[in-house]
Design brief:
The structure is a single chain. By secondary structure, the protein is an alpha/beta fold. Among the domains are: 163 residues, NAD(P)-binding Rossmann-like Domain (Rossmann fold, 3-Layer(aba) Sandwich); 78 residues. Helix content is 32%, strand content 18%. Strands 8-7-13-14-15-12-16 form a 7-stranded mixed β-sheet. The longest helix has 26 residues. The two termini are 40 Å apart. Bound molecules: flavin-adenine dinucleotide (FAD). The site of flavin-adenine dinucleotide has 33 residues, from α3 and α14.
């Protein structure tokens, strides 16, 4: 009926706190921010309040509970755990990712070893095609792409490198995303594959965006058709949410969903906080709002087995949506129907992509200074550090933040906010 995934493994019971009644009776009501540590000792107080049940919050909850013996309350304003990585079975019984496709890949053995305690893996190498002039061509741009697009027969890396060099533009100083792409592969490939997609995604021309935005997906001279080249590429065998259920299935961890932490801050006593929400919200937008790009998702289920040849198809030049994702490619689910999601970039909505412009980096720096001077609150994850991080990077960051927490006595500001590299 629902395919392999739903039946493969029983759900792990997780303690979800639905009621605050027994907690509210024991705590004084404190201020919203600069929370008031309990003055009356309560037997049921928590060592940590963790705001956000995504990767950052869940890793820290798990570490603090299992390794440091801490009592942890993790709360999320969404009705589910797993943050943006949340997956679930839709009405047709197809496993889908609520917040767009999430593909796991990393070069960090430490991160793989850590997560493997909570999941088995299904090997999966991601493939993306771009629809350009009626053809479906491999992304990122590679030897395979230009051979198929231009009808060439470049046989090796050297001939492809020479081809790119012959079409690349000279750019004195690479500053913008347009600069980086045209300096690598020239204007025609930039116009066909990058310009339209980036304009849709960011609502800005690549010439207005920092080079780092388009530098992430570098062109290749080989004909490797995989989207990622990391040494470990796999999906949690039973999905992300199941993996999170296992991470949080510890008797020291209580979970409170549908709850903004500001609703309960004075009601539930705790000693220290891990905050993984937006850093500007924590400080009541004191210096102004940090801009994000958002997405609207349109899900469709089709009464046939497959819709597209690979998991993701990009549409750089046509349609209002940027890409379509067919989930069964990612999950390996066996099902007679198939579900696809289309992504429509937006200015407003859930905060997904920090907008990498110098003025935003300056604004973030001001919040970061406040964060580093705030005792007993540890900031972690993509929203609290205003940085686009992949999942493995957030896990690595959270493992380091855990080490910092263990090393930091109460009442002392946390060490510098941890940033991570690939
Ligand atoms: C469309 C999209 C696709 C992506 N694809 C990939 C991919 O393929 N591979 C990859 O590695 N990474 C991908 N990512 C990145 C990935 O989503 C992040 O790395 C990861 O989810 C970050 O985890 P986090 O815990 O920092 O944040 P989140 O997962 O966002 O968790 C933060 C949680 O905090 C909660 N919260 C915030 N404020 C409050 C509050 N005031 N009170 C209570 N709760 C609060 C939020 O509801 C949220 O659940 C993608 C991201 C997006 C947006």
């Amino acid at each position: 009926m629902n395919g392999l995934l739903r039946t493969a493994e029983p759900a792990v019971p997780v303690a979800i706190e639905g009621s605050l009644q027994d907690l509210t009776s024991i705590a004084p009501i404190g201020a919203m921010h600069g929370f008031v540590p309990p003055t009356v000792h309560q037997q049921r107080s928590f060592d940590f309040m963790i705001v956000g049940a995504g990767f950052a919050g869940a890793v820290l909850a798990e570490r603090l509970a299992s390794q440091a013996g801490k009592r942890v309350l993790i709360c999320d304003r969404r009705p589910h755990i797993a943050g943006n990585a949340y997956d679930h079975f839709d009405d047709a019984g197809v496993l889908v990712h609520r917040y767009g496709p999430h593909i796991f890949h990393t070069n960090s053995q430490r991160v793989v070893d850590y997560l493997s305690r909570f999941t088995e893996w299904r090997p999966y190498e991601h493939r993306v095609l771009a629809e350009v002039e009626g053809q479906l061509l491999p992304m990122p741009i590679s030897r395979a792409t230009v051979n198929e697009l231009y009808g060439l027969d470049l046989k090796d890396d050297a001939s492809c490198a020479a081809f790119f060099a012959s079409i690349a533009e000279t750019v004195e100083q690479v500053r913008t995303s347009e600069d980086i792409v045209v300096s690598r592969v020239g204007r025609d490939l930039y116009n066909k594959f990058v310009r339209g997609y980036t304009r849709k995604q960011w609502g800005l021309d690549p010439s207005q965006l920092d080079a780092s935005v388009c530098a992430r997906i570098a062109p290749r001279v080989n004909d490797d058709r995989r989207y990622f080249t990391d040494s470990f590429q796999a999906m949690p065998k039973h999905g992300f949410t199941r993996m999170f259920e296992r991470m949080l299935a510890h008797p020291n961890i209580k979970i409170l969903l549908n709850t903004d932490y500001r609703e309960v801050i004075g009601l539930i006593p705790f000693d220290r906080m891990v905050y993984t929400g937006p850093i500007d919200e924590f400080f009541d937008l004191r210096f102004g709002k940090l801009p994000y790009r958002s997405l609207e998702f349109r899900f469709e289920t089709h009464d046939r087995e497959w819709c597209q040849p690979v998991a993701v198809v990009n549409y750089p030049n046509d349609h209002a949506y940027t890409r379509s994702t067919e989930f069964k490619h990612l999950t390996g689910q066996d099902h007679p129907k198939t579900s696809v999601v289309y992504e429509y970039p937006k200015d407003v909505g859930d905060p997904y992509y920090p907008v990498p412009r110098p003025e935003n980096a300056d604004l973030y720096r001001r919040y970061r200074e406040l964060a580093e001077a705030t005792p007993d609150v540890f900031f972690a994850g993509r929203l609290a550090t205003y940085k686009y991080y992949d999942m493995h990077q957030v896990v690595a960051q959270a493992l380091t933040v855990f080490e910092n927490i263990v090393a930091t006595p109460s009442g002392v500001p946390a060490p510098e906010l941890v940033s991570v590299t690939r």
